Amino acid sequence: MSIQASYTPAQDLSAWRDQFRLTHTFHLSLGANEPVAGQLDSILKNSNATIEKWVISRRGGHYDHCITVEGIGDESARELRKEFASLNGEIKVHVEHMVHFGN
Question: Which top-rank group of organisms is this from (predicted)?
């Protein structure tokens, strides 16, 4: 009796995923008079993203938020970017998709 193990490409993918960590860094620029930090936090909590780092700096008449998250995929990051941008017409949003190899 011979037993054949079935091979699936997902096996290779899961082994590969164990070797890297995916993060997304959102760069947001908004006016100093915009009270959106609480709204940003609420959106992130609803997305199930884990906040790794959140830095807020003030430059001139606006605030720059640099938020690094993990635990979501590329498509979810794109959706988050759209949600952030829809909060106010003056918010500028850019997202970086980053792969970190090793532990």
Answer: Bacteria
